[in-house]
Design goal:
300 residues, alpha/beta, UDP-N-acetylmuramoyl-L-alanine:D-glutamate ligase, nine-stranded mixed sheet, four-stranded mixed sheet
Length: 300
């Protein structure tokens, strides 16, 4: 089974305007609601690719109840924890001449809430997959990912981590199955701007020496580079298409990579499916759907 964890999920209220006029009344041309959060996005795309997941995380208040109901109606299996203080976020995404976002705060997660999550994580068994992605809310300790991975260490669970800077680097000692920085985040870790494939591969190799098993580096329109645990370097370009969405492409790449590897055990194919899934989301208003993923995959 694949499990995803989303600490601070949200309902995204996406509004489309011809033009945003600050200080004036603005009327939408169109609008949609999306149930989001990085782990939720991964679960969503994996479902579109035919893989069942269990989405773990925290929700609160009547918005949290609506969030959970919405995921169920979409066919996602969840095991969410309802916390007492605060409210699940509503994020406003304004798409006009430029993209503007107003993100909510989210609920307060207590130590008791975390103990409930640990209990659910303890039920994960060998050969299961756990996806940890995104930032940690301010109400939690900055070493939360480390605590989770230390607790699960040695149990044969394949853990994928999509995070930045210290949050990512500090878990490498627990040998995550997959980490997915983008090229800019990878450069920030080592204090440099990475301009060539050779520089990116060198820094990916350093992360592997620090404990990461498979290092997947996304490079937006330039494709991606994978340094797999067998020591092979894979490089792929990006399918052609018009980018209309910047939300969830990285999460979709993680989902596609996991689906590709779980389905075939082939890292080269996993990179292709991950790239197709990430691009399909970038070329869509919402998250990637299988028909477009398959269409783009055929071009790689």
């Amino acid at each position: 089974m694949i499990y995803t964890v989303t600490f601070n999920p949200a309902i995204d209220y996406v509004v489309h305007l011809d033009r945003l006029k600050p200080g004036d009344i603005n009327r939408n041309v169109s609008e949609e609601f999306q149930f989001g959060g990085k782990g939720i996005n991964v679960s969503n795309v994996l479902r579109n690719l035919g893989f069942e997941t269990v989405a773990l995380g925290f929700v609160a208040g009547f918005i949290g109840e609506g969030f959970e109901k919405g995921l169920a109606e979409m066919g996602l299996r969840t095991d969410l924890i309802h916390v007492k203080e605060g409210m699940t976020r509503i994020n406003v995404k304004v798409k006009a001449e430029e993209e503007t976002e107003i993100n909510g705060i989210g609920p307060v997660i207590t130590e008791e809430d975390m103990e409930e999550l640990y209990g659910k994580l303890d039920a994960i068994g060998p050969d299961d997959v756990l996806v940890l992605s995104g930032s940690i809310p301010k109400c939690l300790a900055g070493d939360t990912y480390e605590r989770i991975m230390a607790r699960l260490d040695g149990r044969g669970i394949r853990i994928a981590v999509d995070a930045t800077k210290d949050l990512l680097v500090n878990v490498l000692k627990y040998h995550p199955f997959l980490i997915k920085p983008n090229n800019h985040e990878l450069g920030e870790i080592f204090g440099k701007v990475l301009k060539t494939d050779e520089e990116i591969a060198e820094c990916a190799g350093k992360l592997q020496e620090m404990g990461g098993r498979n290092i997947l580096v996304s490079m937006a329109g330039d494709g991606a580079l994978l340094l797999d645990e067998n020591g092979e370097t894979h490089r792929i370009g990006c399918p052609k298409g018009k980018v209309v969405n910047s939300v969830g492409a990285g999460d979709s790449m993680v989902a596609g990579f996991l689906a590709g590897w779980l389905g075939t055990g082939d890292y080269g194919y996993a990179l292709k499916l991950g790239t197709a899934a990430g691009s399909a989301t970038a070329f869509s208003i919402g998250l990637a759907e299988k028909p477009l993923i398959d269409e783009l995959l055929a071009t790689l």
